[in-house]
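Take our chain:
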Amino acid sequence: MMKKATKIRLLKVGMFVSGALTIMLALSDFIIKQLIKLMLKADVEVEGASSIGIIGGADGPTAVFIATNELFAFKYIWMLIFLVIMGACFLLWRKVSKLS
């Protein structure tokens, strides 16, 4: 059986880590856009930039590739999971802290 102080410490670490991950995921789009603008040193609309590649030749089939990010919803799912973990850690921390 773990000591009460160890449980409290683990719950506090769980709250901090899941909260930090949630904040990082929430701000990731903004940070990435700012980094791209800083690296290019130009006022570029990142939302409008898409990648389209046309591969083919005169004697073969032509293929058009459009690069998109279809996995953007997973970021919000992970944010929700980390928020639930943070909430559970907070509630357990309060319960363990009140027990004497």
User: Anything to note?
Assistant: The chain has a mean pLDDT of 77.
